[in-house]
Design brief:
CATH superfamily: Phosphoglycerate mutase-like
Number of strands: 11
Largest sheet: 8 strands, mixed
Strand content: 5-15%
Number of helices: 19
Order of helices and strands: EEHHEEHHHEHEHHHHHHHHEHHEEEEHHH
CATH topology: Rossmann fold
Radius of gyration: 24 Å
Distance between the termini: 77 Å
Length: 486
C-alpha cells in the first residue's frame, strides 16, 4: 500500500485478476492482441517512434499479459474529469521514406541483374530476396492511417471506457470534447476513437455519421496540437537550422553506424559507397512498417540483429532528443500553451465541482503526434538523463531514460485524471490528480509519488502555468540592423 502526498490519500495496488477485468473489456475486440496473433521480433522494441503500441506496453517482447502495475484510487475518490493527449495510430510511411526505400530497392534489383547468381557459398542470397520482395507502398499513402491504426484507437477507447466507466458513460457521450491536428491520420484516429465509444455506449443502435453524433465531429486546432508549426523561434533555430541536428549527422558518420554500413553492404553484396546512413535507417524502418501494418516479418528484418537495432534506435532517439526533447529549450517551451490548456480544463472542472455544478466536459480527448507529446513530457521534466544524448556517448547512454519507442509509440497517450475526494474524518474536500502514460501510472517527476493534490501539482508547475507565454517564448530576438556608416 502506498501513500499519496502528506499521507492523506491511500493508493492501493489492484490485484492482478481485478485489474485484468478492468483493462480487458467484456467486448472481445477490446483486449490487446493475443501473443499468438502477433509476430514478435527481437528487433520489435528498437523501432523508436515507429514502435507498435503493444510492443511498448507489454512487460517484454515475449509476454502475453499487459502490464499489471496500475494503481487505482480507493473508493473515497471519484473521477470527475479525464483529459487525454493521444498520438495517432499506426500509419503508412511518408512519401520521403518511400522514395528512399525505392532507391534502395532499385539498387538491389540492379545488383541482381548484374550478378544474377546466389552468393559464393551457395546459401541464401538476402539481396536477391529483397529485390524480389514487393514494395507495398506508393507515394500517395504518405503517412496516412492504416486499418491497424484504427484498431489501435478502437481498442484504446474501449479500454479507457472500461477503466473509467463513470466518465465514459452513455449520459456523458454528448459532452465529449474532441480536438485534433489537421493531419489526416489524426482526424481519422479521432473518428475511430469516437466511433468505438458510440458502439460502447449505444450497442443497440447503428453507427451514425460523425457529423450527426450528439457530441459533434472532432474540432481541428493546429495551434494547439501542432504548436511547433506556429513557433517562429523553433522554426528558425531548430526546424530550419542546418546545425541544430549536428549530433544526429555526426552519429551517422561515427564508428557505430559505419560498422553497420559495412556489414549491410557485405550482406546485400553491394558497394559500401552505394549506401548511407539514411538508406540503412529506411531499411530498418521498412522492417517495422511491414510488421506494424501487415503483421509480417519481411526479409528486411533479416538484415539486422539486436546490436544493430540498438544503434539504429539511438540514431532515432538522437533526432527526437535534439529536435523535440531536451536538446534545445524552445522544443519544450513551445508546448506551454498546450500544457496550460490542459490545466484550464482541470481548473474549470474543479470550480464547477466546488459550486456543486455538473462538470461540463467530463472527457477531453486531444489527438496529435509524437512531436506533440515529446515536447510536453520534456516540459514536465520526464525521461531526462543526467547527461545529454550526443553522437559520442552511445555506450554510456545504453541504459538511458529517453527511449522514444517506450515513450511515444503509435497510439501513445498521456492521460490526466482529476479526482474529487472526501475525507471520512473531516468534511474537507480535496482534488487529486493522477497521470497515466500508455495506460501505466506515471509517477510525478519531482516526487515519484503516484498521485498528487491538484494544488500541489499546480504549485510545482507554477512557472509554466504563470510565466510561460507561447507568444513570447516563440518570438525571435530582434536583430539590430542599424549601421554606423554614413
Amino acid at each position: 500500500m502506498l501513500r499519496g502526498p502528506g499521507s492523506r490519500l491511500r493508493v492501493t495496488v489492484a490485484p492482478a485478476a481485478a485489474l485484468a477485468v478492468a483493462l480487458l473489456s467484456s467486448v472481445s475486440h477490446c483486449s490487446h492482441p493475443e501473443q499468438k496473433d502477433r509476430e514478435v521480433l527481437p528487433l520489435s522494441s528498437y523501432f523508436g517512434t515507429k514502435t507498435r503500441y503493444e510492443d511498448a506496453i507489454y512487460k517484454d517482447a515475449h509476454s502475453e499479459e499487459p502490464r499489471q502495475d496500475l494503481y487505482l484510487l480507493e473508493e473515497a475518490c471519484t473521477p470527475v474529469q479525464l483529459v487525454a493527449l493521444i498520438r495517432h495510430g499506426t500509419r503508412y510511411p511518408t512519401a520521403k521514406q518511400i522514395r528512399k526505400l525505392r532507391q534502395l530497392h532499385d539498387l538491389l534489383q540492379a545488383r541482381r541483374a548484374g550478378n544474377n547468381r546466389a552468393d559464393a557459398g551457395g546459401g541464401r542470397d538476402l539481396g536477391a530476396a529483397l529485390a524480389d520482395w514487393p514494395l507495398w507502398y506508393e507515394d500517395w499513402v504518405d503517412g496516412q492511417l492504416v486499418e491497424k491504426g484504427r484498431q489501435d484507437m478502437r481498442q484504446l477507447a474501449l479500454r479507457l471506457a472500461s477503466l473509467f466507466p463513470t466518465l465514459f458513460s452513455r449520459e456523458n457521450y454528448g459532452r465529449l470534447q474532441l480536438v485534433t491536428s489537421s493531419k489526416h491520420r489524426c482526424v481519422e484516429s479521432s473518428v475511430a476513437f469516437l466511433n468505438a465509444l458510440w458502439q460502447h455506449c449505444y450497442p443497440e443502435l447503428p453507427l451514425p455519421d460523425v457529423k450527426e453524433m450528439e457530441c459533434g465531429p472532432p474540432r481541428i486546432n493546429d495551434k494547439l496540437m501542432r504548436f511547433f508549426d506556429h513557433c517562429e523561434k523553433f522554426s528558425s533555430e531548430v526546424e530550419n537550422n542546418d546545425t541544430a541536428l549536428y549530433h544526429v549527422e555526426a552519429f551517422k558518420t561515427g564508428p557505430e553506424m559505419q560498422d553497420i554500413l559495412k556489414k549491410v553492404a557485405a550482406t546485400l553484396q553491394v558497394p559500401v559507397n552505394s549506401l548511407n546512413a539514411d538508406l540503412i535507417q529506411v531499411a530498418f524502418f521498412t522492417c517495422s512498417f511491414d510488421l506494424a501494418i501487415k503483421g509480417v516479418k519481411s526479409p528486411w528484418c533479416d538484415v539486422f540483429d539486436t546490436d544493430d537495432g540498438k544503434v539504429l534506435e539511438y540514431l532515432n532517439d538522437l533526432k527526437q532528443y535534439w529536435k523535440r526533447g531536451y536538446g534545445y529549450a524552445i522544443n519544450s517551451r513551445s508546448s506551454c500553451g498546450l500544457f496550460q490548456d490542459i490545466f484550464q480544463h482541470l481548473d474549470k472542472a474543479v470550480e464547477q465541482k466546488k459550486r456543486s455544478q455538473p462538470v461540463s466536459s467530463p472527457v477531453i480527448l486531444q489527438f496529435g503526434h509524437a512531436e506533440t507529446l515529446l515536447p510536453l513530457l520534456s516540459l514536465m521534466g520526464y525521461f531526462k538523463d543526467k547527461e545529454p544524448l550526443t553522437a559520442y556517448n552511445y555506450k554510456e547512454q545504453i541504459n538511458r531514460k529517453f527511449r522514444s519507442g517506450l515513450i511515444v509509440p503509435y497510439a501513445s497517450n498521456l492521460v490526466f485524471v482529476l479526482y474529487h475526494c472526501k475525507n471520512a474524518q473531516t468534511p474537507k474536500e480535496e482534488f487529486q490528480v493522477q497521470m497515466l502514460l500508455n495506460e501505466k501510472v506515471l509517477p510525478l517527476a519531482h516526487s515519484q509519488e503516484t498521485v498528487s493534490l491538484y494544488e500541489d501539482l499546480k504549485n510545482h508547475y507554477k512557472d509554466i502555468l504563470q510565466s510561460c507565454h507561447t507568444s513570447q517564448e516563440c518570438k525571435l530576438p530582434k536583430v539590430n540592423n542599424t549601421s554606423d556608416e554614413l
